[in-house]
Design brief:
Elements (H helix, E strand, L loop, with lengths): L1 E10 L3 H11 L3 E8 L4 E8 L2 E8 L5 H9 L2 E9 L2 H10 L10 E2 L4 E6 L1 H4 L3 E6 L2
Parallel strand pairs: 1-4, 5-8
Antiparallel strand pairs: 1-5, 2-3, 3-4, 6-7, 7-8
Bound molecules: zinc ion.
């Protein structure tokens, strides 16, 4: 039910610095800059051959990205996979004992719905993404 890598999320302290590097130095196409209230982050999205790289800067002390930066520093935070049927996928993997951070899908960026798999069940933090209804 997983179709492709949707994006890779990278935690950063300074979004402007990430934009400077990946837009101006590497020449990646900057798709948009957006705030995602559910995750308390500001996101800069780049397109690289159909896969998006998303740089995430926390907007609050209690953002999940703030905690990640404190514990691990800047770097890859999560990998996101696209599915057409997030609810069916959640039912399927929960039935296999997968531990979720979000038991039900929540609002992601750009009108998507998302759910995070607990890293205990996925080694690296994993996000499942579907188009919103
Ligand atoms: Zn993500």
């Amino acid at each position: 039910m997983i179709k492709k890598i949707d994006h890779i999320g990278v935690a950063v302290k300074d979004l402007d610095k990430a934009i400077e590097i990946y837009n101006n130095v590497f020449g990646f196409e900057l798709l948009e800059i957006e705030e995602v209230p559910s995750q308390k982050v500001k996101v800069a999205k780049f397109n690289v051959g159909g896969v998006h790289i998303e740089f995430l800067q926390p907007l609050a002390e209690d953002s999940p990205i703030s905690r990640f930066l404190e514990n691990k520093g800047e770097g890859i935070h999560h990998i996101a996979y696209y599915t057409d049927d997030i609810k069916g996928l959640l039912d399927d993997i929960r039935g296999k004992g997968v531990k979720m951070i979000n038991e039900e899908p929540i609002k992601g960026s750009s009108g998507t719905i998302i759910a995070f798999v607990h890293p205990k069940s996925s080694i690296i933090l994993t996000e499942l993404v579907s188009k919103g209804e």
